[in-house]
Amino acid sequence: MPEKLTFDALKKQVHAGEIDTILVCLVDMQGRLMGKRFLAQHFVDSAYEETHCCNYLLATDLEMATPDGYASTSWQSGYGDYVMKPDLETLRPVPWLEGTAMVLCDVLDHHTHEAVPHSPRAVLKKQLARLDALGFSAAMATELEFFLFEKSYDEIRKGGFRDLTPISGYNEDYHIFQTTKEEHVMRPIRNHLYAAGIPIENTKGEAEAGQEELNIKYDAPLNCADHHTIAKHAIKEIAWQNGHAASFLPKWHQDRVGSSSHIHQSLWKDGKSAFYDPDAKHGMSDLMRHYMAGLIKYAPDVTYFLAPYVNSYKRFQKGTFAPTGTVWSIDNRTAGFRLCGENTKAVRVECRVGGSDLNPYLAMATQLAAGIAGIEEKLDLQPALTGDAYEDTGAKQIPANLRDAMVTLKGSDMLRAALGDVVVDHYQRCAEVEQEDFERVVTDYEIARGFEKA
């Protein structure tokens, strides 16, 4: 494992002039890093204790607009401050930026210094506390899929996001020769992230031209979410530094494969897998069966947190490896949930629903909430699906679009009990904002289809 950067080590590097800038960041609702660049000396002298930000940072859309309808903040309440409390356990160098280190922050109420309940790290921490009260810990891993494009972000933006050309000319799934051509981007991604303390395992070409995948070693959920968020940020910055654009849009073209973010998960107790029973069918303990049954029963409830935008639902197409049914299978990539490591101590479940645009803190938190509900309700797990899940007409389906996912989220008694009404209402409003914004837009498709013919 790569070494962590301690606060004492940071102070020495600052005094030696090796580090002069600290990125002090929170994670917003969209899973992005927001914050400030501190003069390193000021940070180690005093700002390591806390800094402040406007509370609109947890009530914006992708464009950083400030839509109304949020209970937590508004024009009427004046948009006050939140406290950004650096978590010094997350300190790390940022090797792809000269003389720079980074720290992630918890977001606290300015008056009470209590955690802001809808902040992504707080949402995940609450579910981890519930899991701990049951006597378990969790291990999770996320896969990051994305596309690299020939042109830079600025060139693509100035061209109106049209005529997008991937960095490669053909499907590069596991393709060594094609990915060699992309090593000027992918090699620094792997090496810089590892030097930043993130346990990188590998990169590979994915199932489309220009599509890449980054894999990071499993870890405790909070670490996993931190690693995912920093890696996604780094991929964009390193691609930009090399004159290219990296996109985590789940479906950038109707004829191209989408990008996902699968979530591997297992529960542990006293250093041993609580999912593994060597005497049980498939090596699955009763606890694992209850947990998986919870994931399946409540998959529609949590879909918004796995697919948070209008575009997210364009992935879910038959024959694309993006699942549509809430069924499980054994090492079968057509199902929404795949049993991995059958009959081994590494037995785990992979949720294949999530897209590359998910916020990992919220996605993992709601996976845990669904699994915990399965344990508490002692749900029975139905037999594994065999064959093509797309042909299983009896399988319960995940919501087909953002509007349906939003309605399901709003009515979820399970999530309201697990996350709290305040959190559910906050993210339900976030979903509404995305839907309302999309419905105002006249698309190229509508004009081309109806300009003359309608």
UniProtKB/TrEMBL annotation:
Single Gene Ontology BP annotation: biogenic amine metabolic process
Cofactor(s) the protein requires to work: Mg(2+)
Any one Gene Ontology molecular-function term assigned to this protein's record: glutamine synthetase activity
Domain GS catalytic: 120-454
GS beta-grasp domain sequence ranges: 17-112
Keywords: ATP-binding, Ligase, Nitrogen fixation, Nucleotide-binding
Domain of life according to the entry: Bacteria
SMART domains: Gln-synt_C
Family: Belongs to the glutamine synthetase family.
Summary of the function given for this chain in its UniProt record: Catalyzes the ATP-dependent biosynthesis of glutamine from glutamate and ammonia.
Record's protein name: Glutamine synthetase
Species per Swiss-Prot/TrEMBL record: Litoreibacter meonggei
